[in-house]
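# step 3/5: fold
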Amino acid sequence: MPVPSVRAARVPALAKINLTLKVLHKRPDNYHELRTVFQTISLGDWIDVEYRPAKTTRLHVDCNPEIPDNIILRAANAVLHEMRLKAEVHFHLRKRIPMGGGLGGGSSNAAAVLLALPALAGKRVPIDTLTRIAATLGSDVPFFLCGGTALGLSRGEELYPFPEPGVSHGVLVTPRIHVSTPLAFRRLRRHLTIPHNSRIINSFQSFSWEVGDNLPAASWREFCQNDFEEVVFRQHPEIQRLKKKLISSGASVALMTGSGSAVFGFFPNRPDAVAAAQVFPDAESVVFRTVKRARYRSLWWESLEAHALDHTWPPLSRYAE
C-alpha cells in the first residue's frame, strides 16, 4: 500500500494505581526490592503524534504546562535510535494526569511513544526490545507497554500478567502536595540485609490469592497496603485525612498510590463514586474505572487503526515489510 509521507495519530497514555505496594530490602545497587500490583485506570493523557521521515532528527513537544526534560523526547530518541531512523516528530501532549501524584503519567507518556513510533515509522520492534528500552527510561515504563493488571517485581520493571479482577469504579483524589520519592524511600529505613521480610511477603501473597479468586474489592481491604503510607502520612497528615474521608464516604478500599500524593477509593458502583467525588471541594477529584488488558489494547488498535494491524501486540505497522 502507498505509504503517506506524513503519518499522524492520537494515542492514549493511561494512568496507573498500585493495588498494593510492598518495599523489601535495599539492594547492593542502592535500589529497593519491590512487590507491587499495577492497575491501569480510565484517567489518561492523550498524545497527538505527527511523524515525517527526514534526513535529520528533530523532535518537538507542545504541552501546557511545559515539562522540563520531557520524557517523551527521551523515549522518542531512544526508539528512533533502535530503529536506525531519522525523522521529524511533533508531539502535542494533552495533560490530564496530575503530575507528582504517583500515577505514572510521565512513564505512561514514554511507553505511548515507544508503542506509537514503530507503527508510524513502518518498523517492527519486538516487545522484549521495547521493554529493554522502557526500563532505561524508568521503573514504571515497562508496565505501560502491557497495561491491565500486572505483578511488578525487582524495581517494578520485572512484570508478569496478573489475574484481572472485575471492573471497579473509584474516586481518585489528588491534593496539591509534592511528595519526594527518594526521601520517602530513605525514611522507610530498609537495609541491605533481609532479616524481617517474611511478614511483608506473606501479606503480599495473601493479597495475590484474593485478587486471583476474582473476589470483589471489598474483600481486599486488609491486604491492600502501601508501605509508603506510614512515612508519607507522618509528613503530610492531610493526605491521611483524604484517605479517611474516602472510607467515611463509603469506599470499600482506600489507599495511597505509589509514593503519593494521590489516594484512591473503590465504591460499589459508579453512582456511589460520583456522589463521593463531590465531598472533596479542596482537592482535585476524578471518578475512574479500572481498565483491563483487553480494553487497554483495544484503545491502541482504535487509535492506530490507519497505521497498524488489529490484534497484534505491540501494534504491528501496516507499512512494515
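# step 4/5: annotate
Residues 7-162+294-313 form a domain with the Ribosomal Protein S5; domain 2 fold (CATH 3.30.230.10).
# step 5/5: archive (pending)
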